[in-house]
Structures are given as structure tokens and as C-alpha cells.
Amino acid sequence: MKTIPHWINGAPVPGAETAPVFDPATGAEQARVALGGPADVDAAVTAAQHAFETWSESSLTQRTQVMFAFRQLLVEHEEELARIISAEHGKTVDDARGEITRGREVVEFACGLGDVLKGSFSDQVSRGIDVHNFRQPLGVVAGITPFNFPAMVPLWMHPIAIATGNTFILKPSERDPSAADFVAGLYQRAGLPDGVFNVVHGGKAAVDALLTHPGVEAVSFVGSTPIAKYVHQQATAHGKRVQALGGAKNHAVVLPDADLEFAANHITAGAYGSAGERCMALSVAIAVGEAADALVEILRRKAHEVEVGPGDRPGTDMGPLITEAARERVETAVGTAAAQGATVVVDGRGLKIDGHENGFFTGPSLLDHVTTEMEAYREELFGPVLAIVRVDTLDEAIDLINANPYGNGTALFTASGEAARRFQRRVRVGMIGVNVPVPVPMSYYSFGGWKDSLIGDHPIHGPEGIRFYTRPKVVTTRWPQPKQQATAGFDFPTSH
Ligand code: NAD
């Protein structure tokens, strides 16, 4: 059986221990992945520290040229990488292509680093004195990433970290680890020196070793909120800079003036795409006023049209969940919702796919008359379950969203500019779509939620990514004229 190794200092390194990697569409074990611990992390940090000495001295041109070459390889190998992702994650091949494209856009942003990394210069701030600033890399930085985007989420991190002169250690999800090694190979072919990009596989032991290693300067984390809080606490306690993005419960609000067919189409895709395993998935639809009955009827029809099957079968809209435990959790939640008084409009439980009877499949579920006390509303189910909450006004919808502990994404469907403006100004959420269901920002903006969806204060990629992976220096300069009078005051310096 194939074993997926660590990648340290430009070469594969086997793990002393391994864990199973499943094919979610069949339920069968398809590979083993190395499980790293302190020794593997230490080897990766040592390699990355050594590589940092030369990489941080390389020119901006050299670094961006590697990014241009890496981008080209991502284009050429998109199909191969998409199939690797689909085979381990279960999402459709087209959906995997989408995540590669969105990740590649961060590489494209990094290709333009020469512009965004420019410092500023102030001439003659005082007589004969100028000031300029510039930014320098931190050193060895680590990325700890979730299973749901095995290519895109790491790509939110490493292109910017590396292009700004850092060296990087990726600890990907142990559930779908192969994309990380594939990307490591592409970087090597793009001319990235050994030790600049490393992969240590594993779970908690590998994460803990990274959070406490004195050679790691910064940690980027994306995953569930409890682990984000833990990572933030541990890594800051060990003196590291941390960005930690957590879970979500994203609401779509539908006003009565919206085109309901359009809204339902987009909400269906936002709720059930990637089997609901997206941090920007729409898991709650708030139907305002008279929109409700008609909206639920269209959503019911569309949920029945969702084609569930293995991710590599043409025509599949939605694949299996990542594990058997995830499938059980989601199906139990649908049962609990019914017991707590929700109406199960579409019941996805117990779905069997011919030829894939042991796969981790569940069908789309649609729950109506959900209230904010119910578990189906309170928990991030991370599965294909859409909960409908009914309210009377837009302001009620906004209050409901604001009371939710998460604040990652939200979408408003309306024909009213006034309502859209009120919504975007008042809602306590980081990423907002107006008639756009999954408003993932472009790479030259930054990605990040509010409240429990982002711990600390660092969103990811775009300008915030540059800020996170570098620290600023400000230089105040005077070049005295020959024999200039050398008097120096004892008072605190002020400009004149
Ligand atoms: P997870 O929190 O279980 O795992 C994330 C990473 O943490 C993995 O690398 C995992 O190995 C590691 N980890 C898990 N348990 C740990 C522990 N006890 N100690 C230390 N490390 C541990 O998340 P997941 O199930 O892989 O991914 C799904 C979650 O990620 C969802 O909550 C989703 O909303 C969130 N997510 C958020 C964003 C965002 O941008 N906010 C993006 C994608 C996913």
C-alpha cells in the first residue's frame, strides 16, 4: 500500500508511524500517511532555518521568478492535482479544479510582490533628514491546515510566506495529505531551493511540536474554532505570531423582493456544494416575511435534483463526506432536529450509492422551521444540511446573525440597494455577498471572518498576508555635509 512521506529539505522522508487515508467514496483504506512527531518537526525546522540564511538574501526578482514558474506548473498539472484531491477528499474533480484556481490566484498575487512590497520614503522630514521603511521576512513559519481544501488553504499561506523571503513548514490534514507532497514536487521543479518548503504530516503531536518549537517564528492555522483557539493560545504563549481562522455558520438572507428562483439556485449550490464541507458553505437560510413558503418549495425541488455520487463520476454534483464519523454526525443531527421540532422537508439520511455501498455518503437535507435554540442551528454540522429560519424583517435577520458566535460569511438576496447597504454596514461578519452566495474574496483582498471565525486579528492572504509574514523597519537617515557643525541637543528629538 502507498505510504505518503514527509518532505524535508527537498526529499521524501518516511515516518516511523503511519495512519490510514481512506477513499471516502468506497470507505476503503487507500494509503498510509506518515505521522510526524517532535523529531520530524525538529528536522524540518533545522532544514528551514538553514535554507532561510540564503533564501532571505535572494533577490526579489529571483523569488518572484520561482513563483511565476510554480504558477505555470500548477496550470499544467491542474488535472492531476484535482484528481489527487478528489480521490482523498471525495469532492468532485471540477470542484477540486476550482480550489486549485482560487489557490493559484494567491500565487499570482505573490508574482506581483515587487509592487505590494514597496516601502515608502519621506524626504526632508527635518532639515537634512529623510525617513524610509521596508519589510523583512520573519524566518521559519508554519502552516497547519484543514481537510476541506487540501490545496487552496495551504496556498493561502505558502506563496506569500515564501515570496516574502521566509521558509515554510506545512502540516496538512492527515485525512487528505497527498496534495501537499505533490505541491512540494512542483516547487522543486520551479527552482525553489531545498528546505524552503517542507511538509510534516501528522496530527496533534506534529502540531504541538510546531507550536512549541523555538525555531518557528509564526503559525498560520485554518480549521475548527476549538483547535484555532488552542493553537492561538499555545503559539502566542511560546512567543509566536499567530493567525488562526476557525469554523463558521453562514447565513443567507432572502428578502421578499429577491428573485426567488435565482436565490434558491445559488443557496442550493452554496449549501450542498462540496457536501457542505466548506467554511463558506451556506448552512442557514433566513427567509424574511412572505418569501418563506415559496422559497422552501423551490429549495425542496432543487435539493432533490442534486446528483450525489463519487467525485470522479461525470455529472456528480456532490460527493461523500470525509469520514464515516462525519456521516454519522450529520445524520444524527438531522434526527435531532426532527426530534426538536424542525420539519424535515428533504431527508438525506441513509442514502446508498450503487457500487459504493460502504462510501461515506449522505444526501442533501433541508430542515424548515428551525429555531436558534436547536442544535442544527447552533452547531457547525459541516455537511449537506440547510436549515431554514423564518423571520419577519431584515432587521430581525441582522440581529439573528449578529447574535451567532460565528461571523465568517453571509449573503443577502434582494433587489433593494438600500437593504443591501443597511445589511453590509450592520452585520457583524467579515465576508459579505450581495446576491453572491459564497463571497470568497479575491487573492488581492484578504480572507477572514469575525468573532469565533477568526481568533486574534490577522486575516489571511492579500495585503494582510504580506503584513503577517513580514515585520517593518523604519530608517531615519542624515548624511551630514562635510564639517557640518556637530551640536546635539539633550532634549528628546523633535523635527524642525
Ligand atoms: P480541525 O480543526 O479538526 O483540523 C485542522 C488542523 O488541526 C489539521 O491539520 C489537524 O490535524 C489539526 N488538529 C486537529 N485536532 C487537533 C488537536 N487536538 N490539536 C492540535 N491540532 C489538531 O479541522 P478540519 O476538520 O480538518 O476542517 C474543518 C474545519 O475547518 C471546519 O470547522 C471549517 O469551518 C474550518 N475551516 C475554516 C476556514 C476559514 O477560513 N475560516 C477554512 C477552511 C476550513
Automatic annotation (TrEMBL):
Q: Does the keyword Protein biosynthesis apply?
A: no
Q: Which UniProt keywords apply?
A: NAD, Oxidoreductase
One example of the protein's molecular function in GO is: oxidoreductase activity
Please give the Pfam families that the UniProt record associates with this protein.
Aldedh
Show the PANTHER family listed in the entry. Answer: MALONATE-SEMIALDEHYDE DEHYDROGENASE
What's the source species' lineage?
A: Bacteria, Bacillati, Actinomycetota, Actinomycetes, Kitasatosporales
User: Which CDD domains does the record match to this protein?
Assistant: ALDH_F6_MMSDH
* Source species of the chain: Streptomyces fuscus
Domain Aldehyde dehydrogenase, residue spans: 17-475
Q: What is its EC number?
A: 1.2.1.27
Q: Sorted alphabetically, which SUPFAM superfamilies does this protein's record hold?
A: ALDH-like
What class does this enzyme belong to in the EC scheme? Answer: oxidoreductase
Family annotation (PROSITE patterns): ALDEHYDE_DEHYDR_CYS
- What is the protein named? methylmalonate-semialdehyde dehydrogenase (CoA acylating)
Quote the InterPro entries the UniProt record gives. Answer: Ald_DH/histidinol_DH, Ald_DH_C, Ald_DH_CS_CYS, Ald_DH_N, Aldehyde_DH_dom, MeMal-semiAld_DH
